[in-house]
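Hi V.,

Quick status before I head out on leave. The structure for the redesign project is tokenized and pasted below; the design run finished overnight.
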């Protein structure tokens, strides 16, 4: 487990370098694996992880074609030049891919605003004031659907504007990169809002006639939301691995970090579920 190659790298060094999360966790759980063993350049696996994820204030590309070889630590100027070239190409791909996703969410959520679940009050209804309004307006889950759909529309719209700036080449590259990263954060939360809107919309339509179908939708949707919360469950698994190793203090630190990331990533859920209850109370 702690054998080293000619560059002094262990299996843990290699797992970090190629970003193999499964192998990394398997090695981390094994108490015989030394976490702080250094390679010939004096780098621990943690040092390599820091070099790959954050360098000179920018996200370091993790492609095998651009990551420095095991144990390499090039000078700042050559590193920055390599990062700049890779980042400009990556930014163009990010701009194209994210733009498609953002515009699709804007389109879908805009259309959902005018196709509310439950239908609308008939134009022949005796209550003239509510003709053409949603039948289920004012119920908790209907309000939750509207809020989730609105949040998804706003967040994806903001992401679209950020991507417009990210793709505008006359602007400073660092600013464009910041806009692209901001768009990614906004899109993550927008997708979560779309997921919640789908779940509560399904509940509104089927809860009284097909409760088992609704339960299945809840389970499948929960799995999907767990999948897109990659960073949260990765930190949770790391906390578990550290507990198995007996590294209590480190496990507590990572555990608190995972809770913080979960709260930051899932704040739309709190808004969607709490705001309707507050509105009904007034």
């Amino acid at each position: 487990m702690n054998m080293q190659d000619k560059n002094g790298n262990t299996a843990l060094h290699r797992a970090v370098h190629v970003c193999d999360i499964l192998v990394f966790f398997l090695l981390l759980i094994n108490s015989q694996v030394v976490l702080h063993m250094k390679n010939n350049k004096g780098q621990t696996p943690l040092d390599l992880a820091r070099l790959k994820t954050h360098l000179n204030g920018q996200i370091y590309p993790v492609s095998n074609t651009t990551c420095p070889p095991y144990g390499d630590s090039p000078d700042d100027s050559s590193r920055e030049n390599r990062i700049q070239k890779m980042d400009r190409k990556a930014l163009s791909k990010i701009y194209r891919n994210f733009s498609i996703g953002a515009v699709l969410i804007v389109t879908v959520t805009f259309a959902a605003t005018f196709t509310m679940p439950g239908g609308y009050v008939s134009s022949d209804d005796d209550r003239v004031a509510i003709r053409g309004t949603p039948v289920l307006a004012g119920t908790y889950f209907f309000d939750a659907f509207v809020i989730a759909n609105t949040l998804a529309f706003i967040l994806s719209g903001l992401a679209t504007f950020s991507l417009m700036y990210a793709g505008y080449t006359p602007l400073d590259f660092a600013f464009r990169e910041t806009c692209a990263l901001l768009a990614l954060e906004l899109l993550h939360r927008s997708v979560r809002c779309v997921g919640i809107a789908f779940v509560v919309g399904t509940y509104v339509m089927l809860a009284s006639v097909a409760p088992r179908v609704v339960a299945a939708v809840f389970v499948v949707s929960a799995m999907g939301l767990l999948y897109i919360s990659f960073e949260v469950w990765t930190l949770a698994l790391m906390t578990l691995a550290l507990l198995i190793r007996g590294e209590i203090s480190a496990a507590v630190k990572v555990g608190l970090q995972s809770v913080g990331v979960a709260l930051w990533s899932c704040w739309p859920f709190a808004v969607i579920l709490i705001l309707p209850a507050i509105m009904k109370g007034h």
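Above is the designed sequence. The chain has two domains: 1-60, 94-281.

G. will cover questions while I'm gone.

Best,
W.
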